[in-house]
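Case study.
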Amino acid sequence: QVQLVESGGGVVQPGRSLRLSCEASGFTFSNYAMHWVRQAPGKGLEWVAVISHDGKSEFFADSLKGRFTISRDNSKNTLYLQMNGLRAEDTAMYYCAKDIRFVVVTAVHDYWGRGTLVTVSS
Amino acid sequence: EIAMTQSPATLSVFPREGATLSCRANQSVGNKVAWYQQKPGQGPRLLVYGASTRATGVPARFSGSGSGTEFTLTISSLQSEDFAVYYCQQFNKWPPTFGQGTKVEIK
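After joint prediction, the assembly is written out as follows.
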């Protein structure tokens, strides 16, 4: 069965960096676009970024451009989110999510991980 | 970006009763709407996409409808495991955006 397991979260000071990972299993990782979605404590869902199945295309939420980068290693079935210049408002649970369509990016997320919590605080 | 507004914020329902959740977009999104269920401590679960297509393994008591700017998720007879928060999402235009959620609680 499909499994997505995020890791790398923790407490970090404002301005510092953090890299999140998402290890995938149960499907052919290299055939699907992958997304990051975040959820601030007690709040709703906010889409963060997507990377195409082959890693050649990326899109970000406008508010995050320039601070966050997304990448993937298809040989390791792993998705990454590099977060730089972290701010208090980046405090959230970060979920990785699989796109539903083979090769095509739709932004329909058919499988999600359990998330990794990032807390930005001095 | 497209704003998605859900109503009500909270819905109190007796078990085995039906529930209707609404979602409105501030511009047309065609049928490019998905619905997700989220329980405490878990990632969301896809229920419906394309406004009315149930995702794999989703019980038939969940049904989606609507097009353009008005969408509905109907749960025909709530089971104990259905009490959760539900989010709609549009995927017609980038960036994809979510509603603020409707919490379905036990009455």
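Observations recorded in class. The longest strand of chain B covers residues 19-25. Chain B touches chain A through 23 residues (CB under 8 Å). We will return to this complex in the next lecture.
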